[in-house]
């Protein structure tokens, strides 16, 4: 499955290249788009009393005229409703000329129960708020439970940002060639319904020419080439050793959740680094996970020299303040270690929660350390609040999408950013980014983020490159939560990832 996400500008470029390469011209692509939508409507809604096709002035509307013509030819009762002025000579104008149905003004459209609405008002060209008339049709459709089939995007949703300027609530959205970021980013994702990607004759070779750097986060992105393989002669330290910093005696649970998750993800050994005052409570709750005292910078230096762990988690339940800053900066002083034989980084750091918030007053000290030439691979896992503390100006931007914000932050921090939420975005400093879409609201439970940090560290420790480790970690975490469903608490998650891992490995013969 191809999982590139195309911005509206990239889609327009694909369109241009496809038309230049032939054999289809713009009008031909529009016919194919209309055919795909009409076929879907006929297959899904064979008993529709009436199909209302709403056409805007641009090419989205053009697709709509093709749909209306094809459905009418198939014997469906079709009514056409339009708004806006078409450009004379445009493909859309040609499509409307080829459709002989009477055109009514959208202001008079009142769909009734049993009807179907095809929303072909605005797609990639959305440039302002949708009209009151369009909103009224959307409202009546929802109230009457009339299914809306949106062409390309629910009108009002930006394909670039997922932001909405008034909107339709689609049952199905049919888009072309590839999904767009707006199909996966909130709030747009909420109103797309089922998303169908139709092939309209733009070949993969054209998409390849665009050098796309935005992807839907699916296993295709990281499973085949990057997922850790466990060598037949592995021993525990060869499988990676994760160290997780614990908070003080009343805040140790978060670190243990991370530690357990790292171990379940396949790290061969995991150690909780605990303040002296929390050793007792940690010891009482750990079995396979090791425990070691780490109160000072010197303790960390000693540990680093002695055990050479392959990944750290710093932040969950750690406490905000000078100690977190000092520990993080000490880890960042350590040089990266690249194993040229195996082609892997030998260690990396996941900074989460308090590890991020501790730098809110002076994030530049963190960024200076992360930009040092030999600094180790870094993954930050902020939720929205933590993101705003570290990157307040980026967070404030009204214009930028969550995708653009995560990219800007990754560049500034020279770290992989996992900008969490229902539409988690993973972005790398080199501009690659992925949007995650397999989660479920059950994941919004205290400690869930701590588990995610542990999963990512577990993968980093096994030599997975940081962007791929972050993408895989987010997907596995989301998949485990989605499958577990209601009633899940963070304690359940480390065990819930096991069947997900089994399935991934089953589906990839050379990982078995
Ligand atoms: N390969 C492909 O990509 C293919 C794409 N195809 C289809 O083309 C679609 C993109 O077409 P498009 O570029 O003509 O843009 P579209 O969304 O029809 O709107 C542009 C017009 O609407 C106007 N307008 C915008 N918002 C408005 C508002 N809220 N309220 C009122 N007016 C508003 C805007 O006005 P302006 O900003 O110019 O003032 C302009 O006149 C794409 O989504 C897909 O369906 C297929 O044909 C097959 C191949
Ligand atoms: N509505 C949702 N749908 C899918 N995933 C969600 C949703 N809400 C939260 N999540 C995920 O749950 C996790 C919560 O992490 P975080 O906010 O750090 O929680 P905590 O600090 O309690 O561990 C993140 O991975 C986030 O992406
Ligand atoms: K639309």
Q: How are the SSEs ordered, and which strands pair?
A:
Blueprint (H helix, E strand, L loop, with lengths): L7 H14 L4 H19 L6 E5 L3 H15 L4 E5 L8 H7 L5 E3 L10 E5 L11 H12 L4 E4 L20 E5 L4 H4 L3 H5 L1 E5 L5 H6 L4 E3 L6 H4 L14 E5 L7 H12 L4 E6 L4 H7 L4 E4 L3 H11 L3 E4 L7 H12 L4 E2 L4 E2 L2 E4 L1 H5 L5 H8 L7 E3 L3 H7 L1 H5 L5 H12 L2 E4 L5 E3 L5 E3 L12 H14 L4 H19 L8 H14 L6
Parallel strand pairs: 1-2, 1-4, 2-3, 4-5, 5-6, 6-7, 8-19, 9-10, 9-12, 10-11, 12-15, 15-16, 16-17
Antiparallel strand pairs: 13-14, 17-18, 18-19
Helix pairs in contact: 2-3, 2-4, 3-4, 10-19, 10-21, 13-15, 19-20, 20-21
The chain binds ligand NPW, adenosine-5'-diphosphate and potassium ion.
The gist of it:
Homotetramer. The protein is α/β, with parallel strands linked by helices.
CATH architecture title of the largest domain: 3-Layer(aba) Sandwich
Structural class, by secondary structure, is alpha/beta
The third-level CATH topology of the largest domain is UDP-N-acetylmuramoyl-L-alanine:D-glutamate ligase
CATH class of the largest domain: Alpha Beta
Q: What overall form do the CA principal axes indicate?
A: elongated
How many distinct beta strands? 19
| Main β-sheet, spatial strand arrangement | 8-19-18-17-16-15-12-9-10-11
Classified in CATH, the superfamily of the largest domain is Ribokinase
The parts where pLDDT drops under 50 for at least 5 residues are: none
Strand percent estimate: 5-15%
How many helical stretches? 21
Strand count, sense and closure of the main sheet?
10 strands, mixed
User: How many distinct folded domains?
Assistant: 2
